[in-house]
Amino acid sequence: MWTRRGLRPVVARQIKYQWEYLYGALGALRGEAHFAHLPGVSLEWDAVYLADLAASDPTALHVLVRDQAGFHLREGDPRLPARVRILDLPPSCPELNPCEQLWDVVKDETCNQIQATITALRQAMRPVLQRYWEDAESVRRLIGRDWFLAELNVTRKRYLSV
């Protein structure tokens, strides 16, 4: 912060932290969005999120295209819910994951603000997230790469033929 010489700037800052993690998935076919706030990031919490995602539409086959983060379940893991399949993106390529773009949007719209509680932070994020769960076109704009949609179509045919 800039100030006149001899004046000490006063800036609000946060020196105590609370943590919570936002999990999310974007639907490439219908443009839906699914989010969950969870208290941790681990394979166990990922299993909880995937179970919640699977329960959101129990008749659907949920195919997730994910980066290979250490806290993501992999295809074949016994904790993976039924009707959930995982396709891994290449390692060290988070820019290929459309959800990473969404997290950038959330950060851009909530950064440089101090929230006194986790509840207040959730409220600050809500308008950003709501835009995506209410507007399929917003989701499609994040996903709308031709190569990504083509690969999903190939994968969809492969899983439908099983």
Describe the structure.
- With 162 residues, this protein is an alpha+beta fold.
- The protein has a single domain, classed as Nucleotidyltransferase, domain 5 (2-Layer Sandwich).
- Helices cover 41% and strands 14% of the residues.
- It contains five helices and four strands.
- The protein has helices at residues 43-56, 98-110, 118-134, 136-143, 146-160; strands spanning 21-26, 33-38, 62-66, 84-88.
- A two-stranded antiparallel ribbon has the order 1-2.
- β1 and β2 form a beta hairpin.
- α2 packs across α3 and α3 crosses α4.
- The chain is elongated, with a radius of gyration of 19 Å.
- It starts with 20 loop residues before the first strand and ends with a helix.
In short:
This protein is of the alpha+beta class and 162 residues long. The chain has five helices and four strands; from the N terminus they run E-E-H-E-E-H-H-H-H.
Q: Count of helices?
A: 5
**Can you tell me the CATH class?**
Alpha Beta
Following the backbone from N to C, one meets helices and strands in this order, namely EEHEEHHHH
Low-confidence stretches: none
Number of strands: 4
Pick out its properties:
alpha+beta; 162 residues; Nucleotidyltransferase, domain 5; elongated
Secondary-structure map:
Elements: E1 21-26, E2 33-38, H1 43-56, E3 62-66, E4 84-88, H2 98-110, H3 118-134, H4 136-143, H5 146-160
Parallel strand pairs: 3-4
Antiparallel strand pairs: 1-2
Helix pairs in contact: 2-3, 3-4
